[in-house]
Amino acid sequence: MAMPKNDEGRRRVVIEGVMPVVDGGRFPIKRVVGDSVRIEADIFVDGHDVLDAVLCYRPEHEPAWRESPLDPAGNDRWRGEFTVDAVGRWQYTLLAWIDHFLSWRHDLTRRVQSEDIAVALQIGADLIEQTAARASAEDAGRLHEFVGRLRGHGTPEARRAVALDAELLAVMTRHPDRRLATRYESELTVVVDPPRAACSAWYEFFPRSCGVNGKTHGGFRDCEARLERIAAMGFDTVYLPPIHPIGHTKRKGRNNSLAVIADDPGSPWAIGAEAGGHKAIHTDLGSLEDFRHFRQRAEQLGLDLAIDIAFQCSPDHPYVREHPDWFLHRPDGSVQYAENPPKKYEDIYPFHFESEAWQALWQELESVFEFWIGEGVLTFRVDNPHTKPFPFWEWVIGEVKRRHPEAIFLAEAFSRPRIMYRLAKLGFSQSYTYFTWRNTKWELIQYLNELTRGEVREYFRPHFWPNTPDILPEYLQFGGRPAFMTRLVLAATLSSNYGVYGPAYELADNTPREAGSEEYLDSEKYQTRRWDEQRPDSLADFMRRVNEIRRDNPALRRNDNLRFYPIDNEELIAYGKASDDLSSIVIVVVNLDAYHTQGGWLELPLERLDLDPRQPYQVHDLLTGARFLWNGPRNYVQLDPQRTPAHIFRLRRRVRTERDFEYFF
Amino acid sequence: MAMPKNDEGRRRVVIEGVMPVVDGGRFPIKRVVGDSVRIEADIFVDGHDVLDAVLCYRPEHEPAWRESPLDPAGNDRWRGEFTVDAVGRWQYTLLAWIDHFLSWRHDLTRRVQSEDIAVALQIGADLIEQTAARASAEDAGRLHEFVGRLRGHGTPEARRAVALDAELLAVMTRHPDRRLATRYESELTVVVDPPRAACSAWYEFFPRSCGVNGKTHGGFRDCEARLERIAAMGFDTVYLPPIHPIGHTKRKGRNNSLAVIADDPGSPWAIGAEAGGHKAIHTDLGSLEDFRHFRQRAEQLGLDLAIDIAFQCSPDHPYVREHPDWFLHRPDGSVQYAENPPKKYEDIYPFHFESEAWQALWQELESVFEFWIGEGVLTFRVDNPHTKPFPFWEWVIGEVKRRHPEAIFLAEAFSRPRIMYRLAKLGFSQSYTYFTWRNTKWELIQYLNELTRGEVREYFRPHFWPNTPDILPEYLQFGGRPAFMTRLVLAATLSSNYGVYGPAYELADNTPREAGSEEYLDSEKYQTRRWDEQRPDSLADFMRRVNEIRRDNPALRRNDNLRFYPIDNEELIAYGKASDDLSSIVIVVVNLDAYHTQGGWLELPLERLDLDPRQPYQVHDLLTGARFLWNGPRNYVQLDPQRTPAHIFRLRRRVRTERDFEYFF
């Protein structure tokens, strides 16, 4: 084993067990602008010397490191934090060193014999002189004064009092000797996204269904009124399925049939036709100018626009003709269509990522993102990323975010756990989840704890969808209107990012294509639909209320603060989220049984919520406006799904004064 | 972000989550010769292709990698193992690739249309031809035959049957296309030690106390009879405190007093005098020749000899004069002695590892190990390693083991957890532990689970000591003879490595220097002692029996198989160890109350022990010879500490035949 070079063998401090970290630092952690990044590490040294340590951090490519203190938290664990105030990649590492002055000072306080103290004072004076040599002129002056007094004529005990002077300590601490400091072996990365990466409410719809004045196929201009409704409902992101020209060859008809009726518009995911591919707009949706107007209208309404990026082609996509080497060919020379034998998807050609021309392919796909960013789109819902190579995603997201760190990528990967987590690690900002199929109390608690309690939360931002155009879950098919309310409350309060396939959700559309299928009957994927937004049973008002509650209660903007509470009924689930300062505390109770009234005793952790067990407190149901006065940790809750299947309580504390009308705040 | 070079972007398989691993691969895991190293990893790819994967492993510096299979274990987890059949450092990594033939074959089985099958057969024939090009002549011949039949005239369905032929699969599997295989990003290391690193029973004694024929100071020749007793008691390692010349300056007298009586021999840890230092032998112990004879006698008796390496000097050590730059000097020019203010240890000079001459110091200390290895010593108990820098230990152990991979280092670091674990990570083969002070059931279970259930077990080999010359724990001071029996059984069965400071343990010496002290009265550290080994109350027979049980029951040679069992009495602790094939199962029940008989219902996991709950089974107490017939999972146990405070049961199953006298084996 080679002997360490230079001074490496003299660097005695050890830094290890740094947290958070993803796969030993192979991947970054994720935060949003304004977050405090809290770091912990084990820091220690042989023997009994006293340590000091700092966190070093900087935006990537900024030459100078900034520093913030690390403080001992017991058992050799140290803690510190820094705030990230801009988007982009930041780096952080740790620096720790033996502080010989602090060690000497600590020993000095414990010395009892005068002669020992006298010798120690000489040693200390030498140390202070060495420090003065690297201090500012002013500090050096003060240090030399102290040296004079330490070497002076008083008794050792009297001079010891000078040596322990707080000012000397302060000046010395400003000039530590870091020549033999240990730097943590790697520089770790945090990707800082805009705040909407951590908290958002998405509304998905098909613009082609918005035709007005009798038009079968709607366009962007027709959709602007809908944007106003979506904004009024409190959503902040509007998401459109692919908006590109749709292929004709092997086009699928209504309900995914192979037989196409003349005016069937085809699936928007069969991308590309004579009019263009991933950088073109479907003629019937309008011109690029119409798209720009639509996007600007969204922006005016405070809506972020997300588009779908599906890297696959219809047989009519220009790529197929222009870049045959990006596709796999069959022995007869035809292009290999998508298939999962015995199923065939002949309207779709996947890219052949094992192609020798992979680099040109990657560059072109990257340019698709760049094109739409040029059009003001910064949020991308990426279709089926788990069927394209992982190295491609790491590169393309890294490349796009290097230039546009505010870009957000949502991974639509309904795949196996390892695959979904890997996609998140290598760059996706947000991820679809299994929430769509997690219905029971046990399932929800297990899954949410996995997402919010361990290392997963450092890189995987869950995005909860109760439905999508591909998925009408069984629970919604059979639970009626209460099921839609229940799943909306769960999605919107368990996860700070959530979304709905909007028109179908508002109107509680629950008819599957056939029994046992999760596909919608007359799915908008293959045809246009008309939605009667004015129907009296619309859930629009309920959705608006839930979004309003999310906006008003900061506790709901995070997931790492989620805690489940015991409630003695398997059909009731209870949980809470609290802001760090406990000024915002939300407690949610949901009846998972869509058919029957259910009641149970809820048990709250009063101490953790900083509630006095001897004083009443108020829970204010933000859905209904009802207020309840509760006492102690155990209180009874009952929910009738035919009325409102959930409580979203804001916790209100008793105020000490009685001069105000409002006794609880 | 730079685009991957060469073919890196086409390597689609991901390998992550490799276990076991220590600090992301920064440190090796540890095993002993003959162990099977079991590896797990997450391995997956985008899309639906079929994977294959192998473990690659080799002794370090051997150019060729060996391979063993990895098999899928569900949820993208793969498992494999390899056996390490020689001491030294081994490397291992993982290799995984898409097997296009297997993917193709999988799809082929699911195709239903004749025309699809026909096209697939053409694609398959191409694949097989490509494989033939890299196969042996014989295999290539077979493959070409298959290609002929696949391209032949039968119906597609008939030719499909040929394509699915098991022989074709076998030949194809021998020649996978690994050009785009993914190799795990790092090569991990396993340090393979001799078996005694994992299982040993140590006996410590002071050779100077063995004087015969009226000699005050014993020597090596006097100790040889003692070696025979130690071997007869079933110990396998004999460990001696430092055997070097002892300093005179500031020598400590009896019971650590500052006043020295003329013939006080001093502490063996005050190393070095006129006669030499760390490579010399104390004259009164004998010559180097005597030492060699002693070591050879130990070897003949099957005893491994361990010596104490304490890197510190008495003021009279030759190093102090010859290498003043290896020590810290005080302002008056004197050498800084060891201190922990207000305590002083003026008979000890620590090395100054921050010295600019650190490299020469490291080299010299390394040569101390080399010297004793030259004398046939391969086991080193290292004194207070936590007061010397971590980088030094990593280097010196690495360097010694590179040349002598069979060397073993036991870290005597009774320090904080992070420090003890770091020393183990960076190379110590075995470690002292907190067992010495863990007495209650809760303490023992907590601590043993920490040591045996998590990552710690991959690098930290606990060595349990119920006493040492420095530590007479409170439990032994007050519990009398039962306490000594209890702690011996716990040490010897909870941990596969254990040791005792022998003479004091045999005779249950429990007198502290003063109340509240863990020091022995008249400690052998400062004086010679006479031990009456023939005393009728000696524990020697009990110790022999316990060691015999350890030797006869392979289940006791490991720790990762330890499981605690419920028993409904806080004073009783119950646990078991089983060999992988369940041929050796040991169940231990210990009464932790040294004063009173305690009883309780023990609950055994019958299913895990492969016991039929409807059949009786026998537990055979190997300490007393008693046999009990038990039924079902719950059975009653009662232990009187005045008789034997523990059961060490061997589990005996009912044999199916009644022709033998022994119904249980």
What's a concise summary of this model?
With 665 residues, the first copy, chain A, is an alpha/beta fold.
Instruction: Report helical residue fraction of chain A.
Output: 25-40%
The most extensive interface, with participating residues per chain, is: A-B, 65 and 65 residues
Strand portion of chain A, in percent?
15-25%
The unreliable regions of chain A are none
Categorize the overall geometry of chain A.
globular
Quaternary organization: homodimer
Distance between the termini of chain A: 66 Å
Number of helices of chain A: 15
Averaged pLDDT of chain A:
96
Query: What structural category do the secondary elements of chain A indicate?
Result: alpha/beta
Query: Over all CA atoms, what is the radius of gyration of chain A?
Result: 31 Å
Largest sheet of chain A: 9 strands, mixed
DSSP E strands of chain A, number = 29
Features:
23% strand; alpha/beta; 28% helix; homodimer; 665 residues; 9-stranded mixed sheet
Please, could you describe this protein's structure?
- The structure is a homodimer of 665-residue chains.
- Chain A contains 15 helices and 29 strands.
- In chain A, strands 1, 2, 3, 4, 5, 6, 7, 8 and 9 form a nine-stranded mixed beta sheet that branches.
- In chain A, strand 14 (338-340) and strand 15 (343-345) form a beta hairpin.
- In chain A, helix 1 (100-110) packs antiparallel against helix 2, helix 6 packs parallel to helix 7 (288-300) and helix 9 (358-374) packs parallel to helix 10.
- Chain A is globular, with a radius of gyration of 31 Å.
- Chain A starts with 13 loop residues before the first strand and ends in a 13-residue tail after the last strand.
